[in-house]
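Q: Can I see a sequence and its folded structure?
A: Here is a first one.
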Amino acid sequence: MDQDIFSGLSPIQKEIVMCTEGPVLVLAGAGSGKTRVLTHRIAHLVQNLRVPGYNILAITFTNKATNEMVERLEKMLGPDNSVWVYTFHKFCSIILRKHAEKIGFKAGFSIYDDDDSKKLFKRIFKNQGIDYLTEDEVRNEISNAKQKGLTAERYTASIDGINNPEKADLFRKYQEGLLQANAMDYDDLLVNAFELLNNNPDIAEYYKNKFKYIHVDEFQDTNKIQNDITKLIAEKWKNLFVVGDDDQCIYKWRGAEIENILCFDQVYKEAKTFKLQENYRSTPNIITSANNLIKNNSERHEKELVAQRNSGVRVEYLNSFNDLQEAQQITSIIYSLKYNNNYQNSDFAILVREAIAGNAIENRIREAGISYRVLGGYKFYERKEILDVLAYLRLVSNPEDNAAFLRVVNYPKRGMGGAAVDFISGISTEKGISLFEAACIAADLDEVKFRAKAQTIEFVELMRKLISKKNTAIECIIRYILELTCFKEELEKGQTKEEAETRYENILFFEKQAKQFQLKNKDSSLDAFIESVTLAPETKEIESEGCITISTVHAVKGLEFPVVFVAACEEGVFPSQQSINKEEVEEERRVMYVAITRAKDRLYVSNANRRFRYGKDEFHYPSRFISEMKADGSRQAFSEFGGRKFEEERISFSDREDDYGYNGSVEKANECVNAIKQIIHAPSVYNESIEDYKTGKRIKHSRYGEGVIILITGEEDDKVATVEFPDLGIKKFVIKNTPMTLL
C-alpha cells in the first residue's frame, strides 16, 4: 500500500479516505480540507485498491473546483489517470451528446444561456400576443419546474400546470422552440439526461456498471433533479461518497434542497457519517464568531468548527452613522493595514449581501485611488463583442441555432433589418425549419417577393464559407470571421478610438483563449470549445492582480482572503427584507456564515444607522447576526469622525415586530438605538501648523496615546487626520480641534 497517499492527512481525514465501500456522508465544515480528502480518496482507490480511473466519477459544481481537482489528481496519479471529473452540467452534456438522437436531438446541439432563453421567450410572447404575463415570470416558473425534474408534459399534468394552463402552454412552446433550434438550456441538460437514463434501461445500465465509485462535492447545493441523477447512477454499486456542509447551503433560491444532505442517512440507511470540523483557514476568534452565529439555526447537523491556527487579532465590529461614513471607515482601515502590516490590495475582500449595498464603498475606494474589482458585474464572456463572435461560432457549429442566427444576421449591419428577419421567420414558422434554412429558401425567391434577397444571399454565402472551415483551428475561424465581416470597422462606429481598441483587444484575447484550449484539451473541436465557454458561467472578468475585491457573498463562495469586511449588516439588508419566515432567515444566516468564514486573518463586520437604498435614506437597526456572533474574542469598535462619536447598543431581536415584518423583541433597557451621541468639542492644545500633519507622521493624543497618521483628507481648517493607534485601532480627528502633538 502506498503510504504517501496518506501523508499530511489528519487522523479523521485518513479514516475517511480509507472508507471506500457503501454510501458515505462527509460533513465538511468551512476550511476543513474537503478537496484534499476527495482527491486523496480517489488516489487511494486508483493506486492502492487498483480501481481503474474510468470507473470513478467525481462531480463538482464549478469549473474552478473541477480544475483544482483535476490538477491535484494529475500530480498524484499522472495526466493520463482517466478519472471522470466534471460539473453536473458537463457530465450530463457528455451523456446527451453521445445519445442525443434517443431524445430527438442531434449531437451538435447548442446550449442556450440566459440571454438566448430570453430572446426565445420574447419571440414566443410576440407570436402569441401575450401581454398579461411577464417573460421573466414564466421563465422562472419553467426553470423551477425543471429543477424539480418536471418536463413540459409532467408540468401540464401537475397542480401548477392545471391551475396555470397559459404557463403550461408556453412551457410546451418554449420546448418546441428549443427542439427546432437543436438547443437545450442549462436546466434541460439535467432534465434531459435524467429522462434519457430513466427511459432507456440499456443506456442507464451502461453508466451504472461503469461508475463503481461516485463522488459528489458541495452536496448541500444539489437540487431535486441532480439528486435524482446521482441516485440513479449509484443504484448498482451504492458506493456513493458525498461531501458537503448544510451550514453553507445558500442556493435555495435557485433550487438547492437542503433536505438532500440532511436526510442522506435516512435515504441510505447503511450510510457512514463523518464530520470534518478542523478548520485550517481562519483564526480561533473568527471561528468562534462563526460557531456562535450558526448554532442559532435549527435546520442543520450538530457540529462545531475547531480552529487549528493561533488566536490572532480580535474580530472588529464597526458602527457608522451612515453608509458614507461606513465606506470611509473601511477605506481608512485598508490604508492602515497596508501601511502598518504590509497587506496587499489582493488580500482584501469587501462582502455585501446585495450588490447595491456596496455602491458607497465602491465609490469611496475609487476616490481613494485604490485598484479594485467587482465580482458579479459583467463577466468576460458577457461582453457584447465576445457574444457576437461566439454567436458566429455557434452558427458554424450548429446552423439550426436560431438564437445565434438572430444575433448575427444583421451584425455587422448588412441591410437585413426587422422586415427581412420577420419575412424569414415567417417561412421558418410555416415550414417548421430553422431560421438559417428559411434564409436559404428566401435567398432563392424572386426580388419582388423579397426585397432583401441580395443581402440574404450575401449572408448565406458568408455562413456557408464559415461552415466549410468548421474543422480548422478555432483561432483561424475567428480570424476568418473578422476578415469576412469587417468586424473591426463595425466596432469603430459610434465608439471612441480607445473603446474600439479595447473591444477589439478583447476579441484577440478570446482568440488566444481558443488557441490555448486546443493545446490543452484532448477534444479540441469547435463544439467542445463552445461548450467550455457556455458552461463557464462563473468565469469572471479578466482578473487583474493587485486589486481589492468588492463582491456579493454568493460570488465568493469557495474563495478565501486574509482580510474580510462584511458590510451593510442591518435588518432588512442582511438579513434581506424578503426573509420573513424562519426558513428564509436561516438561509440568510448561512449566507452570513459563508461570508465570515472567507476570512483568514482579520474580520470586520460593519453596520450603518442610515443607508441610502433605492432612492431613499432609510434608518436600519443593526443586524441580529451581529449580536449572535459576538463572543469573548471580539470587541466593539467605535468610530470617531471629526469629533463625533457614534455608539450603538446591541439589540435582541427575538420577539419584536418591526417595520420589515420580523418577529423580535428589543430588551427593555435597549428600547431604541442610541444612534448619535453628543458632539465632543475638544480644545486644541498643540502649537504646530496644520500643514505639518502628514501621512506617516507619529503623533501623541492626550487621551489615546501614540499613533501614526495613515491618511490626511480635507482642506485647511477642515483637514482630517486618520490615525492608527496600536491598541485602539483607527480613529479620525479634525486636526484643529484635537488635543494631539507631533512626535
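Q: Show me another, different protein.
A: A second, unrelated one:
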Amino acid sequence: MTTPPPSVSTTSGVSAPQGYTAQADTMVQQARAIHDAAEDAKSEVKDLQPTKVAEKDFGTKHGQWHGQYSLGIEQVGKAADTMCASLVAFANSIGSAGKSYSAAESAQADAARRSGSGL
C-alpha cells in the first residue's frame, strides 16, 4: 500500500481520500496465505517439544545443564505455538475485513444502480 503525502486542494467540496485503498480480493488471498503458512508452521512447532536431546547427550561434564535446556526448549515451543495461533487469528481478521469490504462495495454498487434506474 502506498501512502502519498496529503495534497493541498483548492477546490471546494468533499474529495475522495488519496493513498488509502482496500482491495478486498487481495486481502482475502493474503489472509489465506498467512493462514496456510501459520498452519504449516504449527506442525513443525509440535516437533520442538519435548526436547529429544537427553541428559546423557550433554556429556558427563555438562549434564547439569540439561534441565535448563529442556525448559528453554519448552518455552520456545510454547512461544512458537502462540505465535502461530496469533497469525491464524490475524489472517482470519484480514479475511473477514476483505469480505466485509467486498459486501459493502457490492451493496453500494447496487444502491447506485437502483438510484439511477428511474432516470
